[in-house]
Amino acid sequence: MASRDGLSVSADDYAAAVGARTQLVIASHVYYTSGFIQDLAAVAEIAHARGAYCVIDAYQGTGHVPTNVHGSSVDFLVAGGLKWLIGGPGIAFLYVRRDLHDRLRPNDVGWFGHREQFAFQTVFDYASDARRFEGGTPSVAAVYAQDAGLDIVLEIGVDTLRDRQLELVSDLVGRLRTGGFAPRVPADLNRHAGIVTVPVADPPAVVAALRRQGVIVDSRPGVVRLSPYFYNGIDDNRAVCEALGRVVAAGTPAG
User: What is the pTM for the complete model shown?
Assistant: First the structure.
């Protein structure tokens, strides 16, 4: 469904789109093109009222946005280490609501999901707990990298990370506006995560020009995407805003 404001999809829009024939409602916890935080409890309530399940893509939220899967009543939540859990690629996580463990049988199975994994039986017998949703042998190197990333996140604490994120984003948004830019953020930054998108002409050229100045950011259609995290500081915000101003004023030379 299309966003009305270019930032989010409202609960009303979900309610209008979900009907009696809907089996699964899919939503992002944090939208990767805007940084807006979706109300997970509202999405789950809409899905359940119509007899559907809901699955949440939380890749852009897990690690720096506190998430209560039990309180929101979501059925499934998927996340991974590539983003804010600082674990790198190759590892993903799946949460399945506990009362669904016995009711659901995945069609795509792996030997880690077998009740007696090392019995090597020819007939598949589902594990009785959440292990039934596991696949085959994971990428072991990725597991070690993710374990190290989780240690850092848990040592700092998600609530502390969130507080620091809001501090950095608030400062960054203020500096961008002072510099004449129009960052795409909601009025209430508490509904916003760590992604700040800035409309510019020719975003890939802007990203390339910033890279030549030692500033590493990303682009999405129509915007440059900035993503400060706890290891950044106010000086980084100042540097990226000054560099962005210089690049835009110079006409964003490509190459």
Answer: 0.88
